Amino acid sequence: MTGAGSRGEGIGNGRAIAVLMAQAGARVVAADRDASALDATLAMIAETGVPGLGVVADVGDPAGCAQIVNGALERFGQLDVLVNNVGIVGPAGTAEDVDPEAWDDAFRINVKSVMLMARHAVPALRRSSAAAIVNVSSIVAQRGGHPSLCYPATKSAVLGMTTAMASHYGPAGIRVNSVMPGNVFTPMVTTRGMSEEMRLQRRENNLLKIEGTGWDVGYATLFLASQAARWITGVILPVDGGLTSSVPLPTPPVSRG
Ligand SMILES: NC(=O)c1ccc[n+]([C@@H]2O[C@H](COP(=O)([O-])OP(=O)(O)OC[C@H]3O[C@@H](n4cnc5c(N)ncnc54)[C@H](O)[C@@H]3O)[C@@H](O)[C@H]2O)c1
């Protein structure tokens, strides 16, 4: 899986996914470009007693994607699951002012890496009897309101790749699904600064009025990766406390009883 570290102390989506998979008995190949962030995750995986492997690699580099899959095959001899979790926020700005070079970088890391990881992983996944890919998107892929253009664009591409790959690889027995996290409280958002007021508002925005965490994203990913979801493919699963269902109707619905 990619992006298995967390950009700060605490539990990001990637770290939670890696740890929950190890707790479920999976031999996790945890990849990240940040060695110290990865080490913290590897220490948590070690506590489960299930062997894992850390790979320091940049998925923005095609060689890095190959290195991760090759590392998995060399160490464990098989591959059953690919989780594409890496995602950076990328450059701020609208179409008028976003930096085009930073735009390309974000697409390389958030989008092209998903294609390249799949390119390297699919030959091995075809040999698995429990093959699954889970791509981590975001609710901003389907909802307006994000101040930048680039991040939602990359996350929409992840959804497009999910449904396309589900049809490409379904006949080969490889399931491809996506989780779409909402306003989860992770280092990805806290390290960019968040007031207590904003944190509270994010919680109040969802239907359950509960703060989501990386663990919520992790459990959803674990389910989609597992054989419990063996008949589920091409699905985009919001993990958002109902936020994407919470837009009230503009006028009360008319009863036709
Ligand atoms: N945290 C949220 O609120 C939230 C909400 C919606 C969607 N998401 C999505 O969840 C995913 C990850 O969330 P997270 O909490 O794990 O984020 P995170 O930033 O805490 O951790 C991601 C890890 O990815 C690594 N990484 C970044 N670029 C990399 C690269 N080029 N190659 C290898 N590793 C790289 C970082 O070093 C970091 O350790 C992303 O796809 C993000 O878009 C997050």
TrEMBL record:
Keywords: Oxidoreductase. It is an enzyme of class 1 (oxidoreductase). InterPro entries: NAD(P)-bd_dom_sf, Sc_DH/Rdtase_CS, SDR_fam. The keyword Secreted does not apply. Its EC number is 1.-.-.-. It comes from the Bacteria. It holds the Pfam family adh_short_C2. CDD domains: SDR_c. One of its GO terms (molecular function) is oxidoreductase activity. The keyword rRNA-binding does not apply. This is SDR family oxidoreductase. The lineage of its organism: Bacteria, Pseudomonadati, Pseudomonadota, Alphaproteobacteria, Hyphomicrobiales.
